[in-house]
Design brief:
There is one protein chain. With 205 residues, the protein is an all-alpha fold. The protein is built from 10 helices and no strands.
């Protein structure tokens, strides 16, 4: 039994019940290990939770930093950032629920190392935005605002898939054709338009 399997089981438990409601015994059962083995790898529920978050933040930061360090033009990098964030959430669909619970609780369970891991994600995007502004590929825009303008729609759209399916099944609105790929393409187009520099036109004489 690897620590990764325990972390995967913990992710499902924290997503369903939040930090306070999660129980180590249930996590152990989900991972098919006894509690002694779980505590061998993770000293406490708090350590398990923070390790899980740091792992996710590190994966996201690594992928985004690779994009930031590439030779692509800034608009192309933003396209890739959107696609990569969407891919990460699709690979780890329980993660938005964990983070939205944590946000609702004001980050009560995030210590300094976990916050440092979290900050690496917007910092990677900020580097791309700042470079784009410097090269006049983007209009002047605050890099943190730019980051959240990309992240929030992705999280809510992908996390809301079960609700969209229920709306469609009840024939309240037909949302079946709205694929994640279509959403990513639409957001990429919106970001290009939003970040684009303002083109000044000469006034008519």
């Amino acid at each position: 039994m690897s620590p990764e399997q325990i972390l995967d089981a913990a992710a499902r438990e924290f997503a369903e019940r939040g930090y306070a409601g999660a129980r180590v015994d249930r996590i152990a059962r989900r991972a098919a290990v006894n509690k002694a083995m779980l505590y061998y790898h993770f000293a406490s529920k708090r350590q398990l939770y923070r390790t899980l978050l740091r792992r996710m933040f590190a994966r996201a930061a690594d992928r985004l930093n690779a994009i930031a360090g590439s030779a692509a033009a800034p608009p192309a990098k933003i396209d890739r950032v959107i696609a990569e964030l969407a891919a990460l959430i699709q690979e780890h669909p329980v993660f938005p629920a964990i983070m939205m619970r944590e946000v609702a609780e004001g980050g009560a369970h995030l210590d300094r190392p976990t916050l440092a891991a979290l900050a690496a994600v917007p910092r990677a995007v900020a580097a791309i935005v700042e470079d784009g502004v410097r090269r006049r590929a983007f209009r002047p825009i605050h890099p943190v605002f730019a980051y959240f303008s990309l992240l929030a729609p992705i999280v809510f759209y992908l996390a809301g898939a079960p609700i969209r399916r229920e709306i469609s099944s009840l024939h309240l609105m037909d949302l079946r054709a709205l694929s994640p790929a279509d959403f990513v393409a639409a957001l990429q187009d919106a970001a290009r338009r939003s970040f684009a520099p303002v083109r000044r036109t000469r006034r008519a004489q």
